[in-house]
Amino acid sequence: MRIVLVGPPGAGKGTQAAYLAKNLAIPHISTGDLFRANISQGTPLGVEAKSYMDAGNLVPDSVTIGMAEDRMEQADAAGGFLLDGFPRNLGQAEALDEYLKAKNLTLDAVLDLEVPEDEVVKRIAGRRICRNDSSHVFHAEYNKPKAEGVCDVCGGDLYQRDDDREETVRKRLEVYHTETEPIIDYYKEQGLVVTIPALGKVEEVTERSMAALQRGK
């Protein structure tokens, strides 16, 4: 299957993508992983992306599209893939359609993870990270540490990242509404969008997604 996963920041796309890709036996292709891999390997696209990033500029769509197309060409993606974070705007969605058309391929579904905006803010703004190890993550409401401000694992200080502050989260949501939401309408016109309520346990959301994909076959 060839799937695009969309949803606002804090919807749990990365977590859901990993579970779905495993269940469907297809690679999970995320924009973040693409950038890290290309930059660390020093590919021409990675070098170009790094030059923009080092200058504090946005990486052009053409670079992101090139990375995604290179990844979709790899052998493990021959039987399908799950795209997470790409496409993120109409230009990228149109480029993906052109790429697939040239390969005589089509998308099977676009899964839209739906989460109320206030819940998104609560999820992200409540995160607390350990200064000693960023993999130790807690939440002010959903996963409280035993002692406030102290990591249960190593005793390090917990802090809130600047990116997780409420005002920053709301700005990120504005960007999502402006840039990414239009692709949902674009794919609705193609009859591809399946809206998945993304509240509840991770496993429940995965089950809803898998059931929707099965119905769509």
Automatic annotation (TrEMBL):
One of its GO terms (cellular component) is cytoplasm. Keywords: ATP-binding, Cytoplasm, Kinase, Nucleotide biosynthesis, Nucleotide-binding, Transferase. It catalyses: AMP + ATP = 2 ADP. It is an enzyme of class 2 (transferase). Its main location: cytoplasm. ATP binds at G10, A11, G12, K13, G14, T15, R127, V137, F138, G200. Pfam families: ADK, ADK_lid. Residues 127-163 form the Adenylate kinase active site lid domain. Its EC number is 2.7.4.3. The keyword Membrane does not apply. It comes from the Bacteria. One of its GO terms (molecular function) is AMP kinase activity. SUPFAM superfamilies: Microbial and mitochondrial ADK, insert 'zinc finger' domain, P-loop containing nucleoside triphosphate hydrolases. Monomer. Belongs to the adenylate kinase family. This is Adenylate kinase. It comes from Streptomyces lydicus. The gene is adk.
